[in-house]
Amino acid sequence: MNHESRFSAINIAVVGHTNAGKTSLIRTLLRDDQFGNIDETAGTTRYVEKSVVFAGEDAVLNLYDTPGFEDSSALLQALEEQSKTFEAQSRAAQSPAARLPVELLRAFIAQADQFPDFEQEIKVLRQSINSDVLLYIIDVREPLLGKYRDEIDILSKAGKPILPVFNFIAGNSEALMRWREQMAQFNLHAALEFDTVAFDFEAEKRLYQKLQSLLEQHYETLQILIDFRQQVWQSLQHAAAQRIFQLLIEVACYRREVSGAEAAGKGGIAHGNVLEMQDFVRNAEQRTLQDLLSIFAFTQLDVDLQQLPVTDGQWHLDIFSPRMIKEFGLDAGATALSGAAAGAGLDLMVGGISLGAATILGAALGAGLATVRKYQHELSAALRGHKWLCVDDNTISLLYLRQRKLLHTLTHRGHAAQNKLQLFNDPDHALPGGWYKVINVMRQHPEWQQPSPSDVDYQALQDRVIDWLINDESS
Ligand SMILES: Nc1nc2c(ncn2[C@@H]2O[C@H](COP(=O)(O)OP(=O)(O)OP(=O)(O)O)[C@@H](O)[C@H]2O)c(=O)[nH]1
Ligand SMILES: [Mg+2]
User: Fold this and answer.
1) DSSP helix/strand/coil, 229
2) CA 25 – ligand 2 centroid, Å
3) Could you tell me if the CB of 216 is within 6 A of ligand 1?
4) Which terminus, N or C, of the chain has the lesser number of Cβ atoms within 10 Å?
């Protein structure tokens, strides 16, 4: 059964100079990295191409990608010639009625075959006349040249509202200011900043709100879209935070029994065991990174533009690199003292090892018979002098900080794109209050290695960590 839309879709022509980022903007709005071709050479888009933005099943926006303007001055000149011919014709016919600019465009388009040089531009003009609004994409790094004045002059003849969209704004605030002033000179006061490469819901929402003010008759339709996208956005964020929570649980629950002799021995924990644990952590983090990139439909191109220290879904800096602890501002000594893993201080500082036996014993003795039963296996191993190799607090904290930073980068592109992403030496790498308690709770529930949504304690902990991840603005 065909779905009948509640309203008619808004036709939006995405226009502008070649290479300004028109196709990129559409990809961002569609969250579809397969749409069209994008390239740093001029004249990539050769045809008008339509794509549809839906709110649920309703088509809300028809976006028309168009070829870029190349020689707008010559085009304007040709249009002026046309206008003179018009005037001469009117005089000859003794009909003094002035022609509307849009009629001039129509007449020009009708004679397209006479202007093979403007083949691309004529496609843009045709689409502009047939649209409700024009999004005029501007690369703010470009100097303000006459060609832009000419482009706006030409486009405004279509008689449709024009919304300038400033692209490549990251790190170019002065240029942006000049462009804003310039657009005001053209009577284009409503303008928008939008970095097209990645998804930032706030910027997208501002785009729809500006359109609401330009297209009052479509106000409700746009509101439906805003609400829908907001909902989708929130569920993406939630899904991503939940994925990070799973990583933390998975790693905090990791445990491997080692004999007391091995734990106390001169050689320390067998090297092989440690390497195995480290590989486990690395793989778990890697899978999370890849899942997060795919939740937000990030490609390697986006990653590069974001300057994330990631290639092929892999972090550049290993989680066990000694630089990590230092540069994330964590204090190895402090966690050794505050954690329940007494006696594992040395281990905490190298390679992310701690011996969790003390934690387990302490928890069990404090919590009574039920807990003793639950940890029977661990306790008897502990009594035999066996211990557990766990992932230490610092490593779990680093995972949390690095994933939180990633989540915020993926969701607040505007912040991250300004300059090279500062994952290190960032004074704001604060851990949430109560963080170490949370690690301990996780460790004491090895069964949570399998997601346990029916367990109320699991649920409560998950809600808490998700809330931290999404709402903690300190990163
Ligand atoms: N850094 C950065 N690069 C961008 C941004 N938007 C687009 N690009 C890059 O700019 C180049 C041109 O982007 P396109 O989307 O192909 O531009 P276009 O306006 O469609 O170009 P034509 O189809 O040739 O008219 C590509 O290399 C994009 O990756 C942005 O916001 N920031
Ligand atoms: Mg293009």
Assistant:
1) helix
2) 9
3) no
4) N
Q: Mutation test of ligand 1: which of 19, 34, 124, 167 has the most ligand atoms closer than 8 Å to its C-beta? A: 19
Listed residue (131, 121, 4, 1) closest to 59, CA to CA? 4
Residues 174, 277, single domain; the answer is no
29 and 100 part of one domain: yes
**Which ligand 1 atom is the nearest neighbour of the CA of 38?**
16
Centre of ligand 1 to C-alpha 21, Å, is: 3
Does residue 429 belong to any structural domain of this protein?
Answer: yes
The alpha-helical segments, DSSP class H, found in 253-375 are 260-264, 271-295, 300-306, 322-327, 332-338, 345-349, 357-367, 369-374
CB atoms within 10 A of CB 283: 11
- Residue 20 near ligand 1, beta carbon < 6 Å: yes
Residues 178 and 252 both lie in one domain: no
State whether the beta carbon of 418 lies less than 6 angstroms from ligand 1: no
Residue 218 to residue 323: CA distance in whole angstroms: 54
Q: Does 335 contact ligand 1 (Cβ within 6 A)?
A: no
Considering every ligand atom shown, identify the ligand nearest to the alpha carbon of residue 26 and give its number.
1
204 is a domain residue: no
Residue 227 lies in a domain: no
pLDDT tens for the 475 residues of the chain, in order: 456 667 789 999 999 999 999 998 898 888 776 788 888 888 888 999 999 999 998 999 999 999 999 889 999 999 999 888 878 887 887 766 667 889 989 999 999 999 999 999 999 999 999 999 999 999 999 988 888 899 999 999 999 999 999 998 877 889 999 999 999 988 888 888 877 655 568 888 999 999 999 999 999 999 999 999 999 889 999 999 999 999 999 998 887 777 666 655 544 556 677 778 888 999 999 999 999 988 887 766 667 666 677 777 778 888 877 777 776 777 655 443 333 222 222 222 223 445 444 454 554 455 555 655 666 666 566 556 666 678 888 889 989 998 998 888 787 653 333 333 444 445 456 889 899 889 888 877 778 888 888 999 999 999 999 999 998 755 4
Tell me, what DSSP letter sits at residue 218?
G
Q: Are 175 and 141 in contact (CB under 8 A)?
A: yes
Q: How many angstroms is it from 41 CA to the middle of ligand 1?
A: 9
Q: What is the CATH number of the domain that holds 139?
A: 3.40.50.300
Residue 42 Cβ contacting ligand 1 at under 6 Å:
yes
Domain range for residue 285? 235-471
Does the beta carbon of 195 sit less than 6 angstroms from any atom of ligand 1?
yes
- Which residues are within 8 A (CB) of 379 and not within 5 positions of it... i.e. 6 or more apart? 360, 361, 364, 372
With a 6 Å cutoff on the Cβ, whether 18 touches ligand 1 is yes
Q: How many domains does the chain have?
A: 2
Instruction: Supply the residue whose CA is at minimum distance from atom 8 of ligand 1.
Output: 21
* 167 Cα nearest atom in ligand 1: 31
